[in-house]
Amino acid sequence: MSSEFEGLVAVVTGGASGIGLATAHELASRGASIAVLDVNPAVDEPWLAVEADVTDTESVTAAIETVANELGGVDILINNAGIGAVGSVEGLDDAQWARVFDVNVTGMARVTSAALPWLRQSSHAAVVNTCSIAAMNGLPDRALYSASKGAVMSLTLAMATDHVREGIRVNCVSPGTVSTPWIGRLLEQADDPVAERAALDARQATGKMVEPEEVARAIAYLASPLSVSTAGTILDVDGGVTRLRMRPAKD
Ligand SMILES: NC(=O)c1ccc[n+]([C@@H]2O[C@H](COP(=O)([O-])OP(=O)(O)OC[C@H]3O[C@@H](n4cnc5c(N)ncnc54)[C@H](O)[C@@H]3O)[C@@H](O)[C@H]2O)c1
User: Fold this and answer.
1) In angstroms, how far is CA 125 from the centroid of its own chain?
2) Which of 40, 78, 81, 241 pairs with 17 at a CA distance of 20 to 30 A?
3) Pairwise CA distance, residues 226 & 124, whole Å
């Protein structure tokens, strides 16, 4: 198990923080060579850290070339870089719509497109996209973010179909609220961070936020050379929020 990814090169976008960082650790612990692609790629690990912005085609192309030159190819791509947006359709302007779709959706297409020539050469090619429960659940004040993650879900299925016969499996994870620096930033902005934290914990049927390491292990499952029959899967790591209908807790 510990050498499941031995000899494979994994690229993790947004790999310098939160879910991406936990995924890089998980894949490295199972033997993968890791390249982190991030706008701010500083990581305290002996990995290849490449500064790249997923909204910039030139930057993405150069980054994938660097990875292939330095590590010998690309076998696994974790499309995880993403940004949030708060508000209903009323409070969001065109620039915000363009920006969030550019990072969260087109960014995945750009990086995958750049990596495809290398993925085609791999005998264990896999792409895992980070989606969100926002794709399938109506969340308050998340119109733009939810729309972008709905697009990620559709894109995952379309990409899975396009590339499965080339031996490239494409899947996504759909996390609930995950305890990452992103959520830390949201809590800092809340009027009552303690009440907000409790509300975010309560969103999961399990009553607690998802840990980034749990999402990382789900991503590792989807990316694994042992998961050859898993393609076009949307794997919930959401504390039950998408499918469980709970009765209010008794005091
Ligand atoms: N935290 C959650 O509750 C949660 C839940 C569901 C899905 N997600 C998704 O998980 C992914 C990671 O979120 P996280 O919570 O770990 O966030 P995070 O903010 O901790 O990490 C995101 C990383 O992406 C990088 N990044 C941002 N824009 C980039 C760009 N244009 N190009 C390259 N890198 C860029 C950031 O520098 C950062 O290192 C996102 O796609 C997010 O939508 C998060």
Assistant:
1) 17
2) 241
3) 9
Ligand 1 centroid to residue 79 C-alpha, Å: 10
CA dihedral 37, 157, 145, 60 (to 10 degrees): 20
- Verify that 85 and 183 share a domain, yes or no: no
Domain that holds residue 188: 178-209
Q: Considering the domain boundaries, does residue 246 fall inside one?
A: no
Whole-model pTM?
Answer: 0.97
Check if the beta carbon of residue 80 is closer than 8 Å to that of residue 104.
Answer: no
pLDDT tens profile 39-73: 999 999 999 999 999 999 999 999 999 999 999 99
What are the residues facing 126 on neighbouring strands? 76, 169
Provide the token pair at 159.
Answer: 């990409």
Q: Are residues 71 and 154 in the same domain?
A: yes
Q: Is the CB of 225 under 6 A from ligand 1?
A: no
Torsion of CA 132, 10, 233, 85, to 10 degrees: 10
* Count of CB atoms situated within 10 Å of the CB of 88: 11
- How many Å apart are CA 123 and CA 140, to the nearest integer? 43
Please report whether residue 196 resides in a domain: yes
Q: Is the CB of 109 under 6 A from ligand 1?
A: no
Tell me the CATH number at 109: 3.40.50.720
